[in-house]
Please model this.
Amino acid sequence: MDAVVQPVSMVDTDLAQAPVLVLGLGNILLQDEGVGVAVIERLQRRYRVPDEVELLDGGTSGMSLLEDISNREHLIVVDAVRTGKPAGTEVVLTGEEVPAFLCNKVSPHQLALSDVLANLALMNKSPRQVTVVGMEPLSLETHLGLSEMVTDRLQALTETVIEHIKAAGYEVEQLNPEAWNKNTSLMTEA
Amino acid sequence: MAKRIVVDPMTRIEGHLRVDCEVDNGKVVKAWSSGQMWRGIELILEGRDPRDAWIITQRICGVCTTVHAVASVRAVENALKLEVPLNAQYIRNMIITAHGIHDHIVHFYQLSALDWVDIVSALQADPAKAAQIAQSLSDWPLNNVTVFKDVQEKLKSFVNTGQLGVFASGYWGHPAMKLPPEVNLMAVAHYFQALDYQRTANKIVSVLGSKTPHIQNLAVGGVANPINLDSQSTLTMERLAYIKSVIDELGDFVRKVYMVDVAAIGAMYADWTQYGAGVTNYLSVPDLPLDTMGTQFALPGGYIQNADLSTFKPITGYQDAFFEGGVKESVKHAWYQGGKGALHPYDGETIPQYTDFQDDGKYSWVKAPTFNDKRAQVGPLANVLAMAAAGHEPTTRNLTTVLEMAGTVAGAEIPVAALHSTIGRHAARAVRTAVLHEALEQQWVLLMENIGKGDYDTFNQPVFPEGEVRGVGFHEAPRGVLSHWIVIRDGKIANYQAVVPSTWNAGPRDESDEAGPYEASLMDNPVAEPDKPLEVLRTIHSFDPCLACAIHMVDTEQKEITRVQGVGAQCGVKF
Model:
């Protein structure tokens, strides 16, 4: 990663939101905990998604994501999940599984997704549909970068997310390596 | 006989912050605060370019991304004695103040109001009477019967569809809930409105920081916001005007809603000014630098001993040895190898040595920081007391406003000394929010004036010397003093420590076995029902606890355990 001072473009926060949000969550300083963010980085770098699909690296944020999640047609959350299955296993939760899952779990971040969704429900601005695409982590050591096993399965996980974007009715274009976005990246693509 | 209560999780994540209390005759007689803490950032940063540190440190915590980024660039700049252009200081100051306002609003309404406000009771309220009460307190235009009726209807349908479970606090109808239904309804209406206004505050961070939750515009030596009043991709006049409109919108909510609610609800729980003082040495740092080297600040900070404002000693700037030399951390009661006494962060060691939870031995992953070898409380209360002691006009004015409003509702004068308490921490946070808002307005004007003079500088190139330099970057964050400590050798990071606000407050007993602020604040707290220790939550939540700096993982395995604890996600209780 180079220390470059890049000009910052001024986003318009009042722009109409894309109907689909793909939200990568996790702490990238704890190895496989950051797998959700790694998927977002890969999508941003190697693919082109239409304007109707927004890709967001949410880190471990909570309430500051309220605006981002508010009123979406479809929220696709990509995160590390622990369900007791072997490390590297993909886990997909849809429909009824999601709210039950979010309400009952010990939310691992103080103001995590379940709190945001609870407040959105109160405001009547819940996303119409929520899908969780996750992977069982192998290692949560203090380290920037995924374990080898999860690195090997990152492409498959990314493709699972793409299937869900496509199922929502949007095309995702794979770029040739020479066209990959060269922006600096924290996780996997440095 | 004393009964042991364990509250875990205290902040929704099991093990991240656990509080043990011994309760005897309905009062807490002994307390332990135990938490997990982000440790080992130095393992990731060692050998890296110091200019990259802020990008990585802002990942330490999801709630406090911005504050870790700011403290990090300041640490490197301090080590290099690097000047920061005025425009960059003003832009950073606007991000800091807007973030602080956002954070304090969320804390009061979304995180802690439900410790005091009974949502279910609001269903019984008479909306007309509620509007009458609200109008007697404030001329906020949304304090009217139509809005309150609408909120009550929304709430009804929300409760009827069984969705209240998402809040899972489980303390509706608790005997310690004292507000009349109408005041509960007013507070719930403001809870809804706060959701909108905390977003409004965050918009300023988004526009200047280019993106949330992780801002992109910082750099060691300044900011990456090029200023060109005509170009679309830079900070334009249109952007600056937009920010001004957002600032104005926020001000009304802070003054007419947040400050008023805290004063009124605080007055109705006036008995809570008697509990929760704990450690009354207060530490805060000055913030919002007004010059390029950080010797002049919009907001003062410093140290107060034993709740006595006349002992106030200011911290004068980034080079002041009073702060840099005063901080130490003890691991006598933390799960690290010790034996060397309390150590300064530049010499800090983090070598794990886990034992079981030992009441008289080691029982936490959090170290115990001290200032000049004494425990100190940090946070908005510490900062407001310091600013008041320094004679900071906006602080004394806003503090007087809140105390007078509370006094009117309570029907008795409320002295400044009432602030040393559980409810006092909420009052101080509201005062600080008003002060931050005025500071935000001021920083906007300073930026405009400076640009008006033709100064478009936003960045000074850092130059790294051969050999070793060290520096501290401090920031008065929403939860209090945050400091990052860096040792740079030949242009690369050699050591890096972050002493975060919650370590000051949540730390275990120290080298001389003195209790930390959380622990001390719980002494003599009433506990009406040991299986529903709402009062313990009230006092700990008043600090705005955040130890969730590390883990964010969806964990379905925990599901059954939570359910067995029976009181939901916010607070599991075990005996």
In short: The mean pLDDT of chain A is 82. The CA atoms of residues 60 and 109 of chain A lie 7 Å apart. Residues 148-167 of chain A form the longest helix (20 residues). Chain A touches chain B through 62 residues (CB under 8 Å).
